[in-house]
Amino acid sequence: MKVEKAKGKLGILIPGMGAVGTTLIAGICAINREMALPIGSLTQMGRIRLGKRTEDNKPLIKDLVDLHPVKDIVFGGWDVFEDNVFESAFHADVLDKKLLEDLRPELEAIRPMKAVFDKSYAKRLNGTHVKERNTKMELAEALMQDIETFKEQNNCDRLVMIWCGSTEIYIEEGPVHETIESLEDGLRNNHKDIPPSMIYTYAAVKLGIPYANGAPNLSCDIPAIIELAKQTGSPIAGKDFKTGQTLMKTILAPGLKCRALGISGWFSTNILGNRDGEVLDDPDNFKTKEVSKLGVLEEILEPSLNQELYKDLYHKVRINYYPPRGDNKEGWDNIDIFGWLNYPMQIKIDFLCKDSILAAPLALDLVLFLDLAKRAGMSGIQEWLSFYLKSPQAPQGVTPINDIFKQQIKLENTLRYIAGEDLITHLGQDY
């Protein structure tokens, strides 16, 4: 496969420069100054096996494929508050204050552009740093102008956009989303089922820019955007960063299934105190996240095929806003399982994590892999990036893969294919 060289500067554009976005930016600054390691990032620290097991050939992923170097990344973006990245990161309270002070000059230099925002899609936010236009199409055009200006001012060779903003209210796919023409008509007529995230998506994809959706919003996984992405050569990936509790589910559920152990109930609750937790405290926004989280077990366990083990599975997900916790999310799972002769057992997991610390390396990998896909001439849905996402996109008529180990195989074989290496099928003693 012919892949264009990763030259010049890569611009990373982030709608939503809150906890996740600023943690990513500060992290890259710290890594480039050799103050920290990029732990959690496969593009920076992951290895991949090539050839037979007997050859013991396991290079770094970044040595196998031509990924853009992080030292040549430029950041920009939009936010509903005008705080610069240092101020926003300080208020998010994810990273150590001394680290932020050491990085202060670099972070203060990055200021968000005015955001596209509509309070009706995120009722708990009171955005003050927002664009004012008559139509959603005019807002999209304003974003495209922002993008072109940013690229020119920062001398960027290429751009990638990744949504790190809040979860919007639940919206189902409808007629306005079916074709490029219907979407553009909806933008001109301020259709209610076109949320701000979709306006960003349209602006990026219209310009041929790769786009990733880190929230469960209905932004890029609609027929109109998928078709537009093919026309403009834009790789897209969505949706919702797979970080804490869902990461645990996609690790544990495949293990239980492969050992043919039954599950009668899986109760999941979260407490979270950052901006994301505040937004999700509204029922309409929570529903969007709930749908994203609930679908994981259904696909992995396939209850219709494994009725004796999973047909009566009761799956419940709760998210509770708890301000004292800040970005330190706690995901608690109670799993009721049963084994030989229907004997009951329990598994309990209490995962205390920093949500943005887990999300930042995923965001980095997504943008670098999407840029690689763009240079390799790959457009439309990038299913091989499902590894990073709670509710991954798949081609129409195809069931998404949620099993993280199957996702890993698909990711690694895609990288081998791009690099011109043999795929690994795990057949035969040498494999």
Just name the CATH architecture of the largest domain.
3-Layer(aba) Sandwich
What is the beta-strand fraction?
A: 15-25%
Number of DSSP helical runs: 16
Q: What is the helix fraction of residues, given as a range?
A: 25-40%
Using the alpha-carbon principal axes, give the shape.
globular
Query: Overall pLDDT, averaged?
Result: 94
| Widest β-sheet, arrangement of strands | 3-2-1-4-5-6-11
Which fold name corresponds to the CATH topology of the largest domain? Rossmann fold
Number of domains: 2
Give a nutshell description of this structure:
The chain starts with 9 loop residues before the first strand and ends in a 12-residue tail after the last helix.
Helices, strands, pairings?
Elements: E1 10-15, H1 19-32, H2 42-45, H3 61-64, E2 73-79, H4 85-92, H5 97-102, H6 104-108, E3 113-114, H7 136-153, E4 158-163, H8 180-188, H9 196-206, E5 211-213, H10 223-232, E6 235-238, H11 245-258, E7 262-272, H12 275-280, H13 283-301, H14 307-310, E8 314-321, E9 328-338, E10 344-354, H15 355-375, E11 380-381, H16 404-419
Parallel strand pairs: 1-2, 1-4, 2-3, 4-5, 5-6, 6-11, 7-8
Antiparallel strand pairs: 7-9, 9-10
Helix pairs in contact: 1-4, 1-15, 7-8, 7-9, 8-10, 9-10, 11-13
